[in-house]
Amino acid sequence: MAPVPLASSEERLWRLIEERTAPGADTARIDERIWNLFGQEWAVMFTDLAGFSRGTKTFGVTHFLQIIWEQRKHLFPVVERHDGALVKTDADSMLILFKRPDAALACAIEMQTTCELINSRRKPEEQILLCVGIGFGHLLRIGDHDVFGREVNAAGKLGEDHAKESEILVTEALRAAASRNAGTQYEALTIEVPGSDQNWRVLWQPVRSA
Question: Based on CB atoms within 10 Å of each CB, which residue in 93, 125, 203, 208 is the most buried?
C-alpha cells in the first residue's frame, strides 16, 4: 500500500483554522498545534520604494518596472550574501527573512549603501529610493511563501508606511536582539505600530565593502 501523502503546509494550516471555528472547539489546543507546526523565530524585513506611485503617474509604469528590475538586480545579491530568504515580492516591495537579527540589520545597511552608490550617478527619477522596516520574533512561517505574526505586521508598517527614503526603521525586539552589533546607533521614534509600541531609526553608516 502506498503511503498517504502529507498535506501541504497551507492545507494543514487552514484545516486547523476550520477546526477552530467549530462550536465548542478547544481553541487553545488548536492554537498550540498551529504554533508547534509553524512557529519559528525569524527577523523579518519589509522593503518599499519611496515615491513609487507618484512617480509612476509622472513617468509611466514601464519606467518603474525598470526601477523594480534594477532593485532586484542590485539588491538580491546583497540579500544572498547575508543569508536572507526572499519570501515574496509585491510590485516594488519585498518580504525577506533572516535567522539572525544582526544579519538582517547588516543586510539593510549594505542595501542602503548600495542604493546610495547607485543613486549618486543617476538622475532623480532613475534612483532606487529604498525604505526598510525590520522586526524580530516568533512568527508563523507557512511553507516558503508566507509569514504571519506581530513582528511581521510591525515590520510591514514601518517599512511601507513610515520609513522615508534611505531609512531603516526597526522594532524594539529587533534592536534588543541585534544589540551585539558594536557601533550601531539608534534614534527613538515617537510612532507606535500594530505589534510594536517602541520603534527606532537606525543611524547607519555606509559599509566600505559595498
Answer: 93
Q: Residue written as cell 534614534?
A: 187
Query: What total number of domains does the chain contain?
Result: 1
| Max Cα–Cα distance, the chain, nearest Å | 65
State the Cα–Cα distance between residues 152 and 144, nearest whole angstrom: 15
Strand partners, 146: 142
* Within a domain: 149: yes
Q: How many whole angstroms separate alpha carbon 134 and alpha carbon 105?
A: 8
- The DSSP secondary-structure symbol of 4 reads P
Cell readout for 89 is 515580492
Q: Where are the beta strands (DSSP E) in the chain?
A: 39-49, 85-90, 93-98, 130-142, 146-148, 168-171, 186-188, 199-202
Supply the pTM of this predicted model. 0.89
pLDDT in tens, the chain (210 residues): 445 455 688 889 999 999 999 999 999 999 999 999 999 999 999 999 987 665 566 667 788 888 889 999 999 999 999 999 999 998 889 999 999 999 999 999 999 999 999 998 888 888 899 999 999 999 999 888 889 999 999 999 999 999 999 999 999 999 999 976 657 899 999 999 999 999 999 999 887 654
